[in-house]
C-alpha cells in the first residue's frame, strides 16, 4: 500500500493509444519522474470512469486524477503545475523566468493543443461525413499556422525559454499527438525539439511505465 504522502494517479486500464505515450497521464508521469517523486498508479476502466467513485475525483469522468493525502486534483495541466510548484526542477528560481515557463504551459494547452485535438476528432469521428474532404485541409492549415509561429519562436534554441521547464514538458506532450499525421515533420526544429524531450531519462521512464500498463509487462529502467 502507498504511504499517505505518496501520490496516486489514475490511468486507463486499457489505453486507446495502445501505450504510445499519448494518454494524458503521460505528462503527469513525466513530471513526477523529472522531480524524482515516487508515485502509485490505480487502473480505471472506461465504465469505472463514469461511476460515482471516480466522478468524486474527476467530475467529467476522465483521467488522470491525482491524490496526495487529503488533496485530490484533476486535469493534467493542473496536476503538472502542482507538481512543478511542490518540487524543484521544473520551474526556474528567477520570478520572471518562472512566469514565462507557466505561460508556455498554458500556451501549449490553450493555443497549440485545441487545433490538434480538432484534427483527431475530424479524422476519427467525421471521416464518413460528406464535408470531410473539405474540412480536413482547413483543420490541418490551422495547425500549420500554430506550428509555424511556434517554430519561429523556438528558432535554433534547445528549449522554449532557456533551460528545460514545465512549459517544455507540456508542449512536447502536445506536439507528440501530431507524429502520426506527418505535420510535425514539416518543421525540422520542432521535430528536433520533441526528440530532445523524448531523449530525457525521465521521459523514457514515464513512457516505459505507461507502455507496461498496455503490454502487461513490468517497466524496466
UniProtKB/TrEMBL annotation:
Residues 12-91 form the GST N-terminal domain. Keywords: Transferase. Residues 94-221 form the GST C-terminal domain. It comes from the Bacteria. InterPro entries: Glutathione-S-Trfase_C-like, Glutathione-S-Trfase_C_sf, Glutathione_S-Trfase, Glutathione_S-Trfase_N, Thioredoxin-like_sf. GO terms for molecular function: transferase activity. This is Glutathione S-transferase. It comes from Paraburkholderia fungorum.
Amino acid at each position: 500500500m502507498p504511504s499517505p504522502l505518496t501520490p496516486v494517479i489514475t490511468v486507463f486500464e486499457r489505453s486507446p493509444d495502445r501505450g504510445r505515450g499519448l494518454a494524458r497521464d503521460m505528462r503527469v508521469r513525466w513530471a513526477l519522474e523529472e522531480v524524482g517523486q515516487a508515485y502509485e498508479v490505480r487502473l480505471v476502466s472506461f465504465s469505472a470512469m463514469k461511476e460515482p467513485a471516480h466522478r468524486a475525483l474527476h467530475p467529467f469522468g476522465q483521467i488522470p486524477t491525482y491524490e496526495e493525502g487529503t488533496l485530490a486534483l484533476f486535469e493534467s495541466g493542473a496536476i503538472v503545475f502542482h507538481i512543478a510548484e511542490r518540487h524543484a526542477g521544473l520551474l526556474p528560481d528567477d520570478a520572471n523566468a518562472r512566469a514565462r515557463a507557466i505561460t508556455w504551459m498554458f500556451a501549449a494547452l490553450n493555443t497549440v493543443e485545441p487545433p490538434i485535438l480538432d484534427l483527431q476528432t475530424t479524422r476519427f469521428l467525421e471521416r464518413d461525413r460528406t464535408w470531410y474532404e473539405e474540412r480536413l485541409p482547413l483543420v490541418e492549415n490551422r495547425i500549420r499556422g500554430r506550428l509555424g509561429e511556434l517554430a519561429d519562436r523556438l528558432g535554433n534554441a534547445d528549449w522554449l525559454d532557456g533551460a528545460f521547464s514545465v512549459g517544455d514538458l507540456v508542449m512536447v506532450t502536445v506536439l507528440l499527438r501530431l507524429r502520426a499525421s506527418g505535420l510535425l515533420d514539416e518543421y525540422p526544429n520542432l521535430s528536433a525539439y520533441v526528440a530532445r524531450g523524448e531523449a530525457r531519462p525521465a521521459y523514457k521512464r514515464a513512457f516505459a511505465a505507461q507502455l507496461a500498463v498496455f503490454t502487461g509487462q513490468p517497466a524496466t529502467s
